[in-house]
Specification:
about 450 residues, five-stranded parallel β-sheet, 11 helices, about 25% helix, FAD, redox-active center, FAD-bd_OxRdtase, oxidation, Pyr_nucl-diS_OxRdtase_dimer
């Protein structure tokens, strides 16, 4: 059997590893248009802020290791056309410009996503830069050495993390967000305001509710024109949206409205000989029980592994996702899982929130830190739908715990008394996850007057 994997970032790498394990006799061929594989995009802000000194250290896989295991690695090679009916590919070596054909028995599409560049006058200016790839990260870092006033377009995770990176390297930062709040996909307004206040306390100028309409070069830098006002910067880093890169299979497999490849739980497309994984696909989003497009590296790795496991026979189904995310922002952990209150109500739930704020462990300990949690739940079924956490204490694993509770359809009543360890080193007699759920139970049972 011959397996071809198109694309070799997170999903592709995970697929290779499982193909080697479960189909050791197969011939495995990989096509990747870039010279390197496995770049972690978080390396961009970590490098800018000085946490990571060498950007090359952010790669976690070496193509030579796969070659030594018998994988035919074709880097800097672009797949021009796929004929699903004939099981053939037309490819081009980007160095020699030579074309060739190849064939497959099974194909795994791991082509990822493409940058969705916003339509803004002047965006083609070389002082307006993107921040998705490793090459773009190098360009951003080089430009930052001679530019002090940095504009960042986009207030999602990437934009917020970039703002920290530039502040840590001594830059003057203005963060532009079209929505009225930062991180609007992941957080409700109360928690998003906490993030905004943290950024502002560290010197970031946050501009929300403002569309950027044009960039104009001046003698001293760039003028950024928004629907609110104009701002002077030296350069702009654009954190754009992304789109699934599925053009090679258009008209050959089922695609969603935005072009993402639709798969079953075994990562198979509508063509039984083609599997797909990563940013090119949709995911099963458990809080809504529907499939949707949520491009995350964590999804890509799991989906790629499943595609590699299932390429020859059905072995394991995907169990879906809660889209759990997190970041460390100026030494504060910000973590989210599941639905926000706004998203829950849009999905048709009779949703409500409970807020908890208290120290993560007893006051008699030498140190402690406050934890803030917003828990989202459905009043009808009392199911947990989502949570947002923020603390100087490490609460990322608590978000993972809530993710499992959502996965298993647990209720606020169960979360209120779920078995969690107690030690003054780690928490109060009731863990803070128990406590926020107990607040939710009290709200629903009439013992609290707090309203969402």
């Amino acid at each position: 059997m011959k397996i071809i994997i198109v694309g070799c970032t997170h999903a592709g790498i995970a697929a290779i590893k499982q193909c080697l394990k479960y189909t050791p006799d197969a011939e495995i061929t990989v096509y990747e248009r870039h010279a390197d594989i496995s770049y972690l995009s978080c390396g961009t802000y970590l490098h800018l802020g000085g946490t990571v000194k060498n950007l090359d250290a952010v790669f976690y896989a070496d193509p030579a290791d796969f070659t030594q295991q018998g994988v035919h690695m074709h880097l800097q090679t672009d797949v021009i056309k796929i004929d699903a009916q004939q099981h053939t590919l037309l490819v081009q070596d980007l160095q020699t410009k030579q074309f060739s054909h190849d064939h497959y028995d099974k194909l795994i599409m791991a082509t990822g996503s493409a940058t969705k560049i916003p339509v803004i006058t002047g965006i083609e200016n070389p002082k307006v830069m993107l921040c998705k790839t490793c090459d773009q990260a190098h360009h951003l870092y080089a430009a930052a050495q001679t530019h002090h006033r940095i504009g960042i377009l986009g207030g999602g995770y990437t934009g917020v993390e970039l703002a920290e990176g530039y502040v840590r390297s001594g830059h003057d930062v203005t963060l532009f967000q079209r929505n009225d709040q930062l991180l609007n996909t992941y957080m409700d307004p109360v928690m998003a305001q906490k993030v905004q206040r943290l950024l502002q306390a560290k010197g970031v100028h946050v501009v929300t509710g403002a569309d950027v309409t044009r960039f104009d070069e001046t003698a001293t830098g760039l003028t950024v024109t928004t629907t609110q006002a104009t701002y002077e910067v030296d350069m702009v880093a654009v954190c754009p949206g992304i789109l699934p890169q599925s053009d090679l299979l258009k008209g050959q497999v089922r695609l969603s409205k935005n072009g993402a490849i639709i798969t079953n739980a075994y990562m198979e497309t509508s063509d039984p000989d083609i599997l797909a994984a990563g940013d090119v696909t949709e995911v099963r989003y458990n809080p809504t029980l529907h499939t949707t497009y949520i491009p995350l590296a964590s999804h890509a790795i799991r989906q790629g592994a499943l595609a590699g496991m299932n390429v020859a026979q059905h072995r394991l189904k995907s169990i879906g996702t809660q889209a759990t995310t997190g970041m460390l922002l100026f030494n504060q952990t910000v973590a989210c899982t599941g639905l926000t209150l706004a998203a829950a109500r849009t999905a048709g739930y009779d949703a409500r929130t409970a807020f908890y704020q208290g120290n993560y462990r007893p006051d008699f300990m030498p140190t402690t830190a406050p934890v803030t949690i917003e828990l989202v739940y459905d009043r009808t079924s009392r199911r947990i739908l989502g949570a947002q956490l923020m603390s100087a204490h490490e609460v990322a694993q608590s978000a993972n715990t809530v993710s499992v509770l959502i996965q298993n359809n647990n209720t606020i009543d169960q979360m209120a008394f779920v078995d969690m360890l107690f030690s003054p080193n780690f928490d109060e007699p009731f863990n803070y996850l128990n406590l926020v759920a107990q607040l939710a139970v009290d709200q629903e049972d009439g013992f609290a007057s707090q309203q969402a």
